């Protein structure tokens, strides 16, 4: 007897699939992302040096800090560097986004329209995707479901959080595509390894945030010394 799949098993299944897809696209996007990230670091350093230089000049002239804003906005070098930073962000994110969307389309549509009725991540969690009558999805319905998932992302994940609501636990893309995610063993609790997997993601997020703060601090110190001379 199946029942509507709840939010957390669905999330764990999605995150497992996402990890597999990300590993698959790394060889195709890594070089471009590294090049864009290197350019981003260089442009951010230039921007910080320019900002510190303006701040130093303004303070020496006795200007309040807020009065420096028009100067910064009017500086053509600052504006050009800011635009370059935005372009670097696009160059970093776009290959990953395109690669993930294309690989995810093939991965999800192929898996959910087979006898498995599920991606590998869903299969591990004992989930399956069916239509409103409990039948297996065909390729077109699986494709429609994948395309509809964009709405759940564009809603800032509110569409995904709709799956928390009982009794049917339907996400936005489930409703749009007239599909359902069912649990084959609804009475089974979330496995311990799945809880560990979620905690690992939280830990990884914390580590990434700390690493970014440390990297920015070092870059800011480098810019400060370049603009004002050695400190200490």
Automatic annotation (TrEMBL):
Query: Is Cell membrane one of the keywords?
Result: yes
Q: Name one GO cellular component term.
A: plasma membrane
Question: Which superkingdom heads the taxonomic lineage of this protein's source?
Answer: Bacteria
Query: What are the transmembrane regions?
Result: 12-31, 143-163, 194-216
Record membrane topology: Multi-pass membrane protein
Q: Where in the cell is it found?
A: Cell membrane
RDD domain location: 5-177
Q: Per UniProt, which keywords does this protein have? A: Cell membrane, Membrane, Transmembrane, Transmembrane helix
Record's keyword annotation contains Membrane: yes
Protein's recorded name: RDD domain-containing protein
Task: State the organism named in the record.
Answer: Marilutibacter maris
